[in-house]
Amino acid sequence: MPNTGQSPRDRLLETARRLFYTEGIHTVPVDRLVTEANVTRATFYRHFPAKENLVEAYLRATDDELRAAVAEALDKGTPQESAAALLELIGQVTCSAGFRGCHFINASAEYPDPEDPIRVAVAEHRAWFQDTVTRLAERAGHPDPEYAGRVLVLLHDGALSAAELDDPQQVRDTVIRAGRDLLRLDG
Amino acid sequence: MPNTGQSPRDRLLETARRLFYTEGIHTVPVDRLVTEANVTRATFYRHFPAKENLVEAYLRATDDELRAAVAEALDKGTPQESAAALLELIGQVTCSAGFRGCHFINASAEYPDPEDPIRVAVAEHRAWFQDTVTRLAERAGHPDPEYAGRVLVLLHDGALSAAELDDPQQVRDTVIRAGRDLLRLDG
DNA sequence: GCACAGAAGGAACGTTCGTTCTCCCTCTGC
DNA sequence: GCAGAGGGAGAACGAACGTTCCTTCTGTGC
After folding, report:
1. How far apart (Å, rounded) are the C-alpha atoms in residues B82 and B33?
2. I need a surface site. Which of A112, A119, A160, B56 has the fewest CB within 10 A?
3. How many CB atoms within 10 Å of residue A67?
4. Is B28 exposed, middle or buried (0-12, 13-18, 19+ CB in 10 A)?
5. What is the pLDDT of residue A5?
6. How far is B127 from chain A (nearest CA, A)?
7. Taking CB atoms and an 8 Å limit, are A165 and B24 in contact across chains?
8. How far apart (Å, rounded) are the C-alpha atoms in residues A179 and A155?
9. Structure confidence by residue, pLDDT tens digits, B90-146
10. List of residues 6+ apart from A108 with CB closer than 8 A
11. Rounded CA–C1' distance between A38 and C8, in angstroms
12. Are B155 and A156 a contacting pair at CB < 8 A?
């Protein structure tokens, strides 16, 4: 029996993260969530007023994890080493087992309304990443960090999309090489 | 009253394209499709055994349109002019009214199973685009056309994802500039 | 020891979904 | 003129959905 360690709320969040990511949001019914989280319906609705609230909580929890992982990667010596570490992290993510694209892009595909709280969470995540890579490009000495930051975002979004649909290893190599080229990390 | 010109099948396809793209696939019920296509349920199921078949037909029709649009853009003079025209086309698409990301990436978010006929249609579309841009990079004289083709795919995927979630105009400028840089179209 | 909050277990609600069915009308080919 | 295919209109199906409710149990603080 899985999912008996943490609190019911944590089990719900962890199950939501796994099921929403691997199977899509609208396709996963509340039944599956409560069953696989070893939680009852009553407990579900005690913690989350509606399924949508769990979706938003799942995205925000994922956002937190990604920010922590990126912060750790960027906590290297020189800006060049930080940039290389970030590219490695991206490549590692795209090649990880069970990879299914970007949590936020996938969620946006299912929630078209930009005013939806779920889309707001997506926008906040993207604004953070955009800002992070732009400042990284600036520290790495790129002559046009705004442009370089936007290209890094495009490469990142593209890698997350393509790694699910094409060959992840090749996508990994491509995004790392393109990022290194852009930031002139090889000389 | 819209959608009364073409055949019921064409009206269904056109309506499916519009609704699936702008609102998502699982969120659009058969009711909406038949109502907005001015078609009865019986007619719907006479042409498509199930909703899934309409989804696949919608993707294949979109694939056909994109291939035609790209072929027209590439039908220019020099390889450099063709490449510039393709980049312009991408920028134009990402800034068009009602843009909602990539039809195929969005559909994949809702259909996780790679064996699903819908995912097969997505894979075929992507293989075509990958091949197209690789041959374009080769004709444009890039020293490593395989690599350049993969970067163009990443930039393309990234642009389609980012243009919906961020500022389309900036995404447009960025992808065009990055593509021109990659293929050295500016000198 | 007891009150009370939180969780389990499970039935039940009303709605909506995809799909099927019946009936009737209107063309078109022969 | 008629047969048959294709489409319109709408009722109806069972299943699945999100949500609510009721009852019972278990822990913890006072």
Report:
1. 38
2. A112
3. 14
4. buried
5. 56
6. 8
7. no
8. 8
9. 999 999 999 999 999 999 999 999 999 999 999 999 999 999 999 999 999 999 999
10. A119, A122, B101, B164, B165
11. 9
12. no
Distance from CA of B167 to the nearest CA of A (A): 11
Distance A42 CA to C13 C1' (A): 15
Q: Are B138 and B145 a contacting pair, CB within 8 Å?
A: yes
Token couple for B111: 């259909």
Q: What is the pLDDT of residues A91-109, one digit of tens each?
A: 999 999 999 999 999 999 9
CA of A23 to C1' of C4 (A): 39
Chain A residue numbers touching B111 (CB-CB < 8 A)? 24
Q: How far, in Å, CA of A104 to CA of A123, rounded?
A: 9
- Whole-number Å distance between alpha carbons of A180 and A86: 11
| Distance (Å, whole) CA A147 – CA B163 | 15
Rounded CA gap, B27 and B5, in Å? 26
Q: Which of B21, B52, B115, B157 to mutate to test the interface with A (most CBs of A within 10 A)?
A: B157
Q: Chain B: give the shortest CA distance to residue A13, in Å.
A: 20
Q: How many CA atoms lie within 13 A of A40 on its CB side?
A: 3
> How many CB atoms within 10 Å of residue B77?
8
Q: Please state whether strand C lies within 7 Å of residue B30 at its CB atom.
A: yes
Q: Do B105 and A165 touch (CB under 8 A)?
A: yes
Residues in chain A: 187
